[in-house]
C-alpha cells in the first residue's frame, strides 16, 4: 500500500513538473517575443467575439465553429512558439552573423506568417456570415 502511494506521488510530481516547465516556457516566450503577445490579444478578441456571436445567433455559431477557431488559434500560437524556439536555438549555435542561420530564421518566420494569414481567412469565413446577420438584424430593429 505504501509503495503504491509513493508511485502515485512520483507520477503526480513528474506531471506537475512537466506542466510547470511548459508554463515557464510560455512565460519566457511571451517575455522575448512581442508578436506572441499580439497573437494572445487577438485570440482573446476572437474568443470574445465568438461568445457574443453565439449568444446573438446560436444556430449559426456552434461547436464546429468553436472547434475550428480554437484549433486555428492553437496552431498559430504553436507555430509562434516553435519559431521563437528555433530563433533561440540558432542564436545558441551561431555567435556571429551567418547567412544559413538567417535563412533558417526567415523560413521559420515565413511558416508562422502563412499560418497567421490562413488563420485570418478561417476567422473571416467562420465569423463574417453570423456577424453580417447580426448587423442585418440590428438594422431591421432600428
From TrEMBL:
Binding site residues for ATP: 33, 87, 105-106
Keyword Kinase: yes
Cofactor details (free text): Mn(2+), Zn(2+), Cd(2+) and Co(2+) support activity to lesser extents.
Transmembrane segments: 36-54, 66-86, 107-128
One Pfam family from the record: DAGK_prokar
GO cellular component, one term: plasma membrane
Membrane topology: Multi-pass membrane protein
Cofactor dependence: Mg(2+)
Record's subcellular location: Cell membrane
Binding site for substrate: 80
Residues binding a divalent metal cation, per UniProt: 33, 87
Active site as annotated: 80 (proton acceptor)
GO biological process terms held by the UniProt record: phospholipid biosynthetic process
Keywords: ATP-binding, Cell membrane, Kinase, Lipid biosynthesis, Lipid metabolism, Magnesium, Membrane, Metal-binding, Nucleotide-binding, Phospholipid biosynthesis, Phospholipid metabolism, Transferase, Transmembrane, Transmembrane helix
Gene Ontology molecular function: ATP binding; kinase activity; metal ion binding
Family from the record: Belongs to the bacterial diacylglycerol kinase family.
Entries under PANTHER family matching the protein: DIACYLGLYCEROL KINASE
Protein name: Diacylglycerol kinase
Species the sequence originates in: Spiroplasma phoeniceum P40
Amino acid at each position: 500500500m505504501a509503495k503504491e502511494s509513493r508511485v502515485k506521488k512520483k507520477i503526480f510530481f513528474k506531471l506537475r513538473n512537466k506542466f510547470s516547465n511548459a508554463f515557464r516556457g510560455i512565460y519566457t516566450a511571451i517575455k522575448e517575443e512581442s508578436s506572441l503577445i499580439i497573437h494572445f490579444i487577438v485570440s482573446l478578441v476572437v474568443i470574445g467575439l465568438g461568445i457574443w456571436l453565439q449568444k446573438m445567433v446560436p444556430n449559426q455559431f456552434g461547436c464546429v465553429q468553436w472547434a475550428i477557431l480554437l484549433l486555428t488559434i492553437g496552431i498559430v500560437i504553436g507555430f509562434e512558439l516553435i519559431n521563437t524556439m528555433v530563433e533561440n536555438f540558432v542564436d545558441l549555435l551561431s555567435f556571429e552573423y551567418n547567412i544559413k542561420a538567417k535563412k533558417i530564421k526567415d523560413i521559420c518566420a515565413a511558416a508562422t506568417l502563412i499560418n497567421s494569414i490562413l488563420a485570418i481567412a478561417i476567422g473571416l469565413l467562420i465569423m463574417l456570415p453570423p456577424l453580417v446577420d447580426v448587423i442585418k438584424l440590428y438594422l431591421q430593429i432600428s
